[in-house]
């Protein structure tokens, strides 16, 4: 008799799955309790799986129409890439996204890392998740259509939905407005000044100097008066026919841009709705309004043609770094004349609220800043003395710039999401690959620069003494930067300079006098060392990694992040410019 084969059934050892929950509510008019209620339901779902909740992610007052600017969701996806859990629990799929493209991206990532998605309906299959994504997007679109229909009805009744234009105020009855006696007098005065020859900029300066509050309660800006191209949500005061009783509604349609997630506007002539207000709500007569438009058109015809457009913010080395030595406000590009770019204090040029009104040649300022900053940073003794003084003040100044780290992290998350989407486009889009790869390379430069900035800001929370070897390495970095600045100002060089220098204060001087600067460096660059030119992934490498870049985990609430005040490293005077 042959010996039988003995078989044993080995029981499967079951353990609870690791779970992460995600909660979100849309409007700041809702209560934080909504997050707690969703989490309570998610806990019940976890018991059904069964799973142990090890992480929570949430977003407060954030729309699901886009993935941009949602730190909680970005942290969830980054934790998924790190395989920190097996299950994502979300009470309703609409909490994650109300956009089919965004939901597809999330589901792809979950599938790649073998992560299950559970909702109140149970485990979501791929087909079910895509169906609900389409339903949620349609619901979002339907809500927008119904809101627009309701607004149109209010307009037809001779009322105004939302905040009324400057010169009017709301009444106790919804949608009804009445003339504000003080503001309407200002409106009439603005028209009189403009018709009698004053420019919008001069009018704005005059109103600011008289202490008259602008529509937003602050200083007047000429664009508040003269936004007539329809590029903004609200027409400027000098271009808005509502003051003659004519309401034009739905001039523009607002939509989120696929790249960047910011809301942009487009002309919407097919949806324009016009209505007439009662005569008691007319602030000026039609003749005054037409006279103002005639002046505007005459100035437009006389305007010099062929002007070179202003430099974009990211196109010059000192963008965002220059500050006024009088008001501490920003100094920006004012315009070009005869091929020369000029910069000026914004408060002086736009608002007339600062005495530092001189225009400076951008090229001359840039060259002197490069020379002066590099000379200051080469002085080891000065740097050591500066850091010693800075250390004593550290406890008092930690709170001065808490928001910068949060902004850098949010922007890096935004760039990472754009990289992910470009990688998906390379796989599925009909757009030429070379075009997408070029965009990918540019975004990678931005991501690496922001990651280095974030590292520096983290370093600024700790004060340490500089070791001689660290000082030697720092000097070598300065020399490398100085050589690079002497050549073409590439995005990499600009990023390195901005990670080293925090602020350049331009003190007022008269024409012919030497330029007068104060320079402030980023303490993290001095204390924590600086990698001026961190390694940048090639577009090919990003595609190989499937867009799964290195983004650090960031809490969705950054209120505890602290960074240090910039370190003053010296003052110098340059040649006259």
Q: Can you walk me through this structure?
A:
- This protein is of the alpha/beta class and 577 residues long.
- It has three domains: 17-141, Resolvase, N-terminal catalytic domain (Rossmann fold, 3-Layer(aba) Sandwich), CATH 3.40.50; 168-302, Putative Large Serine Recombinase, Chain B, Domain 2 (Hect, E3 ligase catalytic domain fold, Alpha-Beta Complex), CATH 3.90.1750.20; 365-501 and 520-576, no CATH class.
- Helices cover 43% and strands 16% of the residues.
- It is built from 18 helices and 18 strands.
- The protein has helices at 33-48, 71-81, 100-112, 126-156, 181-195, 200-209, 222-226, 286-302, 346-351, 362-377, 380-392, 394-397, 402-428, 433-459, 468-485, 491-500, 523-527, 539-544; strands at 17-24, 51-59, 87-89, 116-119, 122-123, 168-170, 177-179, 246-249, 252-256, 263-267, 273-276, 322-324, 331-337, 340-345, 360-361, 501-507, 514-521, 567-576.
- The strands form six sheets. It has a five-stranded mixed β-sheet with strand order 2-1-3-4-5, with helices on both faces.
- The longest helix has 31 residues, at 126-156.
- It is flat, with a radius of gyration of 29 Å.
- The termini are far apart.
- Mean pLDDT is 77; it is low at 1-5, 7-13, 304-314 and 547-564.
């Amino acid at each position: 008799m042959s010996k039988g084969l003995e078989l044993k059934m080995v029981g499967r050892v079951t353990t609870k799955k690791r779970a992460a929950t995600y909660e979100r509510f849309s409007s700041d008019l809702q209560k934080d309790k909504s997050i707690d209620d969703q989490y309570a339901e998610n806990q019940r779902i976890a018991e059904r799986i069964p799973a142990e909740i090890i992480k929570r992610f949430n977003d407060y007052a954030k729309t699901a129409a886009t993935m941009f600017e949602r730190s909680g969701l970005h942290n969830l996806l980054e934790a998924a890439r790190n395989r920190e859990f097996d299950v994502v629990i979300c009470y309703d799929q609409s909490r994650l996204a109300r956009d089919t493209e965004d939901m597809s991206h999330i589901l792809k990532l979950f599938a790649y890392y073998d992560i299950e998605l559970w909702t109140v309906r149970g485990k979501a299959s791929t087909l079910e998740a895509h169906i609900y994504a389409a339903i949620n997007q349609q619901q979002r679109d339907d809500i927008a259509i119904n809101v627009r229909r309701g607004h149109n009805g209010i307009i037809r009744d001779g009322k105004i939905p939302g905040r009324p234009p400057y010169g009017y105020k709301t009444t106790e009855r919804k949608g009804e407005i009445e003339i504000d006696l003080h503001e309407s007098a200002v409106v009439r005065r603005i028209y009189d000044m403009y018709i009698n020859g004053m420019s919008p900029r001069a009018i704005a300066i005059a109103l600011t100097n008289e202490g008259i509050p602008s529509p937003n309660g602050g200083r007047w800006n000429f664009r508040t008066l003269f936004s007539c191209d329809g590029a903004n949500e609200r027409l400027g005061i000098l271009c808005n026919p509502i003051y003659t009783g004519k309401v034009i509604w739905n001039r523009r349609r607002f939509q989120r841009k696929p790249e960047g997630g910011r809301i942009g506007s487009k002309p919407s002539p097919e949806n324009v709705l016009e209505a007439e207000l009662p005569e008691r709500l007319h602030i000026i007569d039609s003749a005054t309004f037409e006279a103002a438009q005639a002046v505007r058109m005459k100035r437009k015809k006389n305007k010099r043609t062929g002007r070179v457009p202003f430099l974009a913010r990211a196109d010059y080395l000192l963008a965002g770094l220059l500050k006024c030595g009088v008001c501490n406000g920003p100094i920006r590009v004012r315009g070009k004349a005869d091929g020369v770019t000029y910069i000026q204090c914004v408060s002086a040029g736009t608002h007339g609220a600062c005495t530092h009104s001189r225009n400076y040649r951008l090229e001359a300022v840039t060259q002197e800043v490069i020379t002066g900053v590099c000379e200051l940073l080469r002085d080891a003794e000065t740097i050591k003395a500066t850091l010693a003084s800075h250390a004593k003040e550290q406890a008092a100044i930690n709170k001065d710039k808490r928001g910068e780290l949060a902004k850098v992290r949010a922007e890096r998350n935004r760039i990472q999401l754009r990289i992910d989407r470009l990688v998906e486009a390379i796989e599925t889009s009909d757009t030429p690959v070379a075009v997408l790869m070029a965009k990918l390379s540019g975004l990678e430069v931005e991501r690496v620069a922001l990651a280095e900035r974030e590292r520096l800001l983290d370093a600024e929370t700790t004060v340490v003494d500089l070791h001689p070897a660290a000082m030697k390495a720092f000097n070598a970095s300065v020399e490398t930067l100085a050589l690079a600045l002497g050549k073409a100002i590439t995005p990499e060089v600009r990023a390195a300079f901005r990670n080293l220098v925090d602020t350049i204060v331009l003190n007022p001087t008269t024409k012919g006098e030497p330029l007068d600067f104060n320079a402030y460096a980023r303490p993290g660059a001095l204390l924590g060392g600086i990698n001026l030119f961190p390694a940048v992934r090639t577009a090919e490498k990003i595609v190989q990694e499937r867009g799964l870049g290195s983004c650090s985990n960031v809490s969705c609430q950054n209120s505890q992040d602290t960074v240090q005040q910039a370190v003053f490293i010296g003052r110098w005077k340059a040649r006259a410019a």
